[in-house]
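Hey L., structure's done. Input below.
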Amino acid sequence: MPKFDMEVTDERFEYIKNLLVRLYADQIGMEVNSIRVRPADQKTKEPV
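Output:
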């Protein structure tokens, strides 16, 4: 039985996150030009 490396490295996390954003955009008929990550406000959990 083959063994798989399933460790979520920083590079894999970024790749998965960007892929999920692009897949969701495709599902709702939009196109992603760029992705920018911002910290959330700790009180409201909304982007600052």
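The first helix runs from residue 10 to 27. The helical segments are 10-27.

-- N.
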